Amino acid sequence: MFKKFATVISLMMAPATASALTVQTVATDANAWASVNTSQTVALPNGATWTSAPLQMPNVWFPQVDPCISFCSPFDPGIFGTNQTIGATPLAGWQQLPFWATWQAPAGTNTNILSFVGVQRSLTLLWGSFDVGNLIELVLNGQVVGTVAGNQLGLTVRNPGRGAALVTLSNVAFNELRFSSTSGGFEFANVQTAPVPLPLPAAGLATALGMMALARRRRRA
After folding, report:
1. Full-prediction pTM beyond 0.90?
2. Is the backbone of residue 42 left (phi > 0), alpha (psi -120 to 50) or beta?
3. Is position 173 within any domain?
4. N or C: which end of the chain has fewer CB within 10 A?
5. How high is the mean pLDDT in each 10-residue block of the chain (221 residues)?
6. How far apart, in Å, do the first and last CA atoms of the chain sit?
7. Counted domains in the chain
8. Contact 104, 157 (CB under 8 A)
9. pLDDT at residue number 50
10. Which of 196, 145, 174 lies closest to 12, judged by CA?
11. Domain, as residue range, for 50
């Protein structure tokens, strides 16, 4: 019933770069839920902090996610505003699973920013009920180097929103992520990134320094 997607789309990045941002929809709905760690849905990658945080749901001000009122959980098996479901077997206790939510607002008026200590090379996240207006901007040193909207995942955007997609963005270097939406809330979870590895000379230097320190300790002993 549920199909695993391997849709890969190349989107041109900002002119300052010579490569293309790769967007891969890895799985949808039940397959996507089974692919993430439900105990780490709002855990952030090492070295990442919100400088402008989204809402963490469920929230004391917006506690109801079943049925969704303000935001629809990316783990919601229902179709917003209806009594229908997407046909996926729901995860037990999905109503209590926390997730991030960005308010719908006119362009440029509400952006949630996730900043990183070092440069990252890929992003994976669970993207809920994707809408055309959902937008991720990848930023390197203040310059936008790539963007991905909800209608660029290789999947049909449906109204009302439903389901979720596990999405990976790669072939890009960034140290900031910006989340916004101009149509429908942007709900997401399980944000993971991979840092750019140290260049070989730097890695070799770190190893050499470690060996020198070890040798000094041995001589003192």
Report:
1. no
2. alpha
3. yes
4. C
5. 43 47 97 97 97 94 85 93 92 95 94 98 96 96 97 89 94 98 94 87 56 57 55
6. 66
7. 1
8. no
9. 98
10. 145
11. 7-220
